[in-house]
Design goal:
Structural class: alpha/beta
Number of strands: 19
Radius of gyration: 25 Å
Strand content: 15-25%
Bound molecules: cytidine-5'-triphosphate
Distance between the termini: 34 Å
Strand order of the largest sheet: 12-11-8-13-16-17-18-19
Number of helices: 15
Number of domains: 2
CATH topology of the largest domain: Rossmann fold
CATH architecture of the largest domain: 3-Layer(aba) Sandwich
CATH class of the largest domain: Alpha Beta
Shape: elongated
Largest sheet: 8 strands, mixed
Length: 408
């Protein structure tokens, strides 16, 4: 279940090619358990039909303030009172100007003006040509909208429908979805600076070969997303993985355990929470060949010698900041059996207050997982669920422990 389950979202479409993304957004929202009420301007109907939006939302679309389907003939009042949030996506330059001016001569802007401002948040996802976006009038309107309490979600950069390239594209449906979910998440980690390692490491044998493992990075990325949604400032140190960076998260890409160690050491000074989800290679080849190791035809196989990698978590957990309580360290344990025994032993060995055990082969690459939390008080299971859900639950558990530590 996401933060969006049970939420009623009024999705307003103003005119723009990006309306096609709002169709996908509607699907994502309804799939997540939200109800979506679509309201469209006349211009939006030039880009996508109300039929499509009705089919995807499962509700008749509203487009006119004179819609007689409402008993009191006041759709602007009824629609806005029922909403947990109003999201305008796409929000055109013209519609932004209308919001700034408090115009009320068509249903969507009328409804935004009539919404109970303290109770019904307004989010906007702008979409326009790059020159329109950069224009001082638009930037002035944006600043005014933010000052009036609207949450401006920002824009993407890239190819535009007009053929130009630059800022002003509407965010992708998945990105808007992520922003909306984050908006509703309780800000349990506000003020915290969270450093997370994720994914495997790659230890080179020669320029074309290396040793790695089956970690996909999905658990660490899910925790990063959940921590950011909970209001934390998040830095994610990622091994070689093919995953999109969660919105609002600072990402540092690394390859080997030594690279990861360096990146973490550089960031740990500023962090207040360190979560080590990465499956770090324990050993690396003692000598990585400068050129590809060739078969010489004799049938002889090369002999590889290994040296141990630094233990990133154990080193950080022994730092002065961690020992003084300024940096809260959370370790993971990827095991294949005897989870509780191994996780408890590992917690003591690494010197961390909280260790999270999981069965590696059962979860590497999967979208779900089951976790076992081990701390000084005992252990607690987080039963099998999506990694997104487990990320949220883990953030809650960490926030609870941080609160307990700072309680007088
Ligand atoms: N870890 C680390 N640096 C390493 C090895 C592990 O930071 N060189 C971290 C992992 O990110 C994880 C925890 O230590 O949070 C435990 O990792 P795991 O691979 O389960 O255990 P190991 O320390 O490798 O111990 P073992 O091989 O005995 O299971």
């Amino acid at each position: 279940m996401t933060e969006l389950a049970g939420k009623h979202i009024v999705l307003g479409l103003s005119g723009g090619v990006a309306c096609y993304k709002s169709a996908e957004l509607t699907r994502l929202l309804t799939k997540a358990g939200a109800t979506v009420q679509v309201v469209m301007t006349e211009a939006a109907e030039q880009f996508i039909t109300p039929v499509t939006m009705q089919a995807l939302s499962g509700r008749p679309v509203y487009a006119s303030q004179w819609d007689a389907r409402e008993g009191n003939n006041m759709p602007h009042i009824n629609l806005s009172r029922a909403a947990d949030a109003i999201l305008i996506a796409p929000c055109s330059a013209d519609f932004m100007a209308r919001l700034v001016q408090g115009r009320a001569d068509e249903l969507l802007s009328l409804m935004c003006l009539a919404r109970p401002i303290e109770r019904v948040p307004l989010l906007i996802a702008p979409a326009m040509n790059r020159e329109m976006w950069a224009h001082p009038a638009t930037q002035r309107n944006l600043a005014q909208l933010a000052q009036d309490g609207a949450q401006v979600l920002g824009v993407g950069c890239g190819d535009q429908a007009c053929g130009e390239v630059g800022d002003g594209r509407m965010l992708e449906a998945e990105e808007i979805f992520e922003e909306l979910a984050a908006f509703f998440a309780p800000k349990l980690l506000a003020g915290q600076r969270v450093l997370i390692t994720a994914g495997p490491t790659f230890e080179a044998i020669d320029p074309v070969r290396g040793i790695t493992n089956l970690s996909s990075g999905k658990m660490g990325f899910a925790i990063a997303r959940a921590a950011r949604a909970a209001g934390a400032d998040v830095t994610l140190v990622a091994g070689p993985v093919h995953l999109a960076t969660p919105r609002g998260v600072r990402r540092i890409d690394v390859r080997s355990a030594q690279n990861m160690f360096q990146a973490v050491e550089g960031q740990a000074q500023a962090a207040t929470v360190f979560i080590a989800t990465a499956a770090v290679a324990d050993w690396r080849p003692a000598n990585s060949a400068e050129h590809k190791i060739k078969k010489d035809g004799s049938g002889q196989v090369p002999t590889l010698a290994f040296v141990e990698n630094p233990d990133i978590l154990a080193t950080v957990a022994q730092s002065d900041r961690a020992r003084s309580g300024a940096l809260y360290c959370v370790g993971f344990a990827a095991e294949s059996e005897h989870l509780l025994a191994h996780a408890s032993a590992k917690r003591a060995r690494k010197g961390v207050p909280l260790l999270v055990g999981n069965i590696g082969p059962a979860t590497f690459g999967q979208d779900d997982n089951a976790l076992l939390l081990v701390d000084a008080q005992g252990h607690r299971e987080l039963p099998r669920a999506s990694k997104a859900e487990l990320g949220r639950q883990l953030v809650l558990e960490i926030a609870r422990r941080l609160r307990a530590m700072s309680a007088p």
